[in-house]
Amino acid sequence: MTFPRFSRICSPRLSFAAASIFTMGLIIAQVYAEPEPVSITIDGLVTQALAANPELKFYKAEIAVAKSARSTAGRLSNPQLDLDLGFKKLRGDVARSEGFAYAVTLAQPVEWPGRLVLRRAIADRDIGLAELGLEKFKSFLAARVKLLGYSLATHQENAAAAAEVAGRITSVKDVIVQREPGGVAPLLETKILEASEITIQSRASDAAVEMQQALLELNQLMGRRADTPLQVRRSEFAPPKPVALADLLHQAAQNNYAIRVRRAELEQQGLKVALSQNKRYPTFTVGPSVSHENTGDGETVIGLSLSVPLPLWDDGRAAVNTSQARRMQAEASLESTFRDVERGVTEAWLILETQRKRLDVLKPDSLETFAEAASLADRHYRLGAVPINTYIEMQEKYLDAASAINATRLAVLRASLDLEQLAGNAKAPNQNK
Fold first, then answer.
1. Residue 293's beta-bridge partner residues?
2. Is the Cβ–Cβ distance between 15 and 7 less than 8 Å?
């Protein structure tokens, strides 16, 4: 049946309706089709994460809270207004009188000199800690996204290589099964291929699971749905230049984020000790007062009001002791953090040097040569020039080599990023870039 016959049978209106239905079907199929994976570079992933990560709002809000507290830390306390109203009766032997009486006092609390300065300094440290927290998180986020992006690309390559080898073995097995059995050798070859196919498919499934795990975390850091598809264009990172361990430890002591936070907390705690000692001195409340009695001829009194708390039950020593104990804790925390960072830098440096040596042994085109050798073994096995043991071993060794090479490159990147974070060499990227 040809289209001209169909057009003669159907009316123009019916043909238009059929075409509309067909067009709507195509639109619906496009809408509900699986979205194509977006191919993006690792630097692009970092840029998107720094722009859309939801946790960044928390650190920015912390800075806003600290700045708001700073704006009120240096202000005087609000003045106090006291108002007393009453009715007074005066009785004597000669005369009696009565009338309203009132007293008004406006007083301003005046704190001991230096207290407001200490509060402003503590508030400034809070702002510095909040800004340092944001800088630390942005640096960590960039490093984590780089590692996950490279890991995702590596797992994608491993899964693709395993799927390629599994497809070769399946194709060869199907060809052998279609042949007439000529003895036990073809049967055994078929079973060897089936067993290898199962093993390689299992490796492909493991690589796919690792790929999905990296994808889920990466989408979470980028503020996207967990199941959003993504294709990473991997770019090789050049290993950092060798640096002496002593130099790295010195850099970490000065620039490590955790040490900088602990050092700022120690400075802030020292200010809190000074503030608690200052608070042992009383706060004066001073202001004018007016009282008037409308009895008899009337009487008005204008004076100065002064009130001072008496430190009988709470002399402030407990608060000073508490703040001093907090400062000792801050000192211990700084020392402990310094030792942890020192151990982490040494460990990352040793791992990086070990993995760097492994990577230096590999040739730049090692992975490509193994892939060509596996393809060559496949072609010659089909021609009968290569035994099955050599064929299977070559396919498996290709996958082993690809996995080992990618794992070594990933380990070098992970160790170098850890070392940058620990030594404080990594700068927080600008979110606006």
1. 101, 299
2. yes
d(CA 412, CA 237): 9
Q: What are phi and psi of 82, to 5 degrees?
A: -115, 130
Q: Which run of H or E residues covers position 180? A: none
Q: List, for residues 159-180, the tens digit of each pLDDT value.
A: 888 888 988 888 888 777 666 5
- Of 88-92, 223-227, 339-343, the poorest mean pLDDT is in 88-92
Q: Would you give the distance in Å from CA 195 to the centre of its chain?
A: 43
Question: 177-183: long-range contacts at Cβ-Cβ below 8 A with a sequence spacing of 24 or more?
Answer: none
* Angstrom distance (rounded) from CA 350 to CA 364: 23
- Integer Cα distance of 41 and 227 in angstroms: 19
Parent domain of 157:
40-76+111-280+315-423
Separation CA 133–CA 140 (nearest Å) = 10
Q: Higher confidence at residue 211 or residue 340?
A: 340
- Residue 210 reports pLDDT greater than 90: no
Give the whole-angstrom CA distance, residue 50 versus residue 215.
17
pLDDT exceeds cutoff 50 at 402:
yes
* CATH number of the domain that residue 211 is part of: 1.20.1600.10
**Euclidean distance between CA atoms 107 and 304, whole angstroms:** 9
